[in-house]
Design goal:
By secondary structure, the chain is an alpha+beta fold. Helices cover 36% and strands 26% of the residues.
Length: 148
Amino acid sequence: MTANDYWIDFISKKGLDPDSLYHGELGFGLDRDDTIYMTELVLSGRKTALFSSLLAMNIDMNTVSKPGNYFVINDQDNNPCGVIRMKNVSIIAFKDITWSIAIKDGQDSSIEQWRQRMIEFFEDEAEVMGYEFSPDMPVVIEEFELLH
């Protein structure tokens, strides 16, 4: 089943308007094992937010989601396995992200653990993409809900 077929099936079962804000497909993770882990976090309801560098998004020419946008999520084999809807989108300096926000990432047990993991991630990404990580760096936080 393609993501588009999955979307059409979803909106027909839920009685949604076919013109709902379908924004495309979304996959989680950097490699197969990471994708399995991250997708399980989303499908279990533990992960309810995405954290992205605004600098990286600008370099990749990706747009920031808007509340109400729907995405079909894909598993490690690129098969559709769920639908999420963006609830809230904000841009906050990395240093200003609190535990009440970071916990929505679903992976860590403290703000310190989350910060350390994300600093490593953003520093690695910055090296590859050509931007510089700093605590003042703007982070896009896309909070979502799993619908299917």
